């Protein structure tokens, strides 16, 4: 497989989804006050962008054969980035998204296929480099956008993204571990436990699931996977 071509296709695709995510929510009045424990859509978009910038720096160091650690104190980094961007305008969020996408794409393009299929050279991540890039450039933004739409109970949008990106994921990596983590949305679903309206979200999600059986709004297979893997 030409992993460079495929990874670029994936990052281009998810970039379009992220642009739509920002545009469609730009005029939405969120019925909660944003906080570090309850991100607005702007917080989500800024977080994704900062994550891409961090991934770009790691890939640049890998290319230079410098030491790179897979593990950071993510809570510290996320809090710093949240504070930096929490009061920014929509336009500033858009510009950060564009910038982060360009720098990550540039770094991916700097590797040839033999480097991508080789060990990542990132301490704490022993799989191939392309798998690390897949996580940071494709799975991570997908998971955050899907979770946000679930949080605001726009289930059709959430599962359309999950459906489309699941198909793309299978073209590159269909391993049980990656697919399971994809449908679990990483660890984000654990955040539902901290939300005051968790029971309402889950009730309405189950209602959406029942309606989907009859109406086929989104892929029944994808929705079944999600509900089963998360024991909902």
Give an account of the 3D structure.
This protein is mainly alpha-helical. 69% of the residues lie in helices and 0% in strands. The protein has ten helices and no strands. Helix 1 packs parallel to helix 6 (129-151). The termini are far apart.
From the spread of the alpha carbons, the general shape counts as globular
User: How large is the share of residues in beta strands?
Assistant: under 5%
Biggest sheet, open or closed, and with what strands and sense?
A: none
Distance between the termini: 36 Å
Structural class: mainly alpha
Helix content: 55-70%
Spans of at least 5 consecutive residues with low confidence:
none
Mean pLDDT comes to 93
Query: What pattern of helices and strands is seen along the backbone?
Result: HHHHHHHHHH
Number of helices: 10
Could you tell me the radius of gyration in angstroms?
18 Å
The count of strands amounts to: 0
Task: Give a nutshell description of this structure.
69% of the residues lie in helices and 0% in strands. It has 232 residues and is an all-alpha fold.
């Amino acid at each position: 497989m030409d992993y460079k071509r495929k990874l670029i296709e994936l990052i281009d695709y998810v970039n379009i989804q992220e642009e739509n995510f920002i545009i469609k929510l730009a005029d939405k009045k969120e019925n909660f006050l944003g906080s570090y424990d309850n991100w607005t859509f702007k917080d989500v978009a800024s977080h994704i962008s900062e994550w891409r910038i961090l991934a770009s720096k790691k890939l640049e160091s890998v290319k230079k054969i410098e030491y790179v650690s897979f593990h950071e104190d993510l809570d510290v980094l996320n809090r710093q980035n949240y504070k930096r961007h929490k009061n920014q305008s929509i336009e500033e969020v858009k510009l950060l998204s564009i910038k982060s996408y360009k720098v990550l794409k540039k770094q991916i393009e700097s590797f040839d296929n033999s480097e991508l299929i080789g060990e990542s050279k990132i301490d704490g991540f022993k799989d191939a480099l392309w798998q690390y890039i897949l996580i940071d450039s494709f799975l991570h933004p997908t998971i955050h956008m899907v979770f946000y739409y679930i949080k605001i109970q726009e289930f059709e949008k959430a599962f359309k993204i999950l459906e489309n990106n699941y198909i793309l994921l299978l073209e590159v990596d269909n391993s049980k571990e990656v697919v399971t983590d994809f449908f679990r949305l990483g660890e984000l679903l654990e955040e539902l436990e901290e939300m005051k309206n968790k029971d309402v979200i889950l009730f309405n999600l189950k209602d959406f699931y029942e309606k989907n059986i009859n109406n086929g709004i989104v892929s029944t297979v994808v929705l079944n996977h999600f509900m089963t893997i998360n024991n909902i």
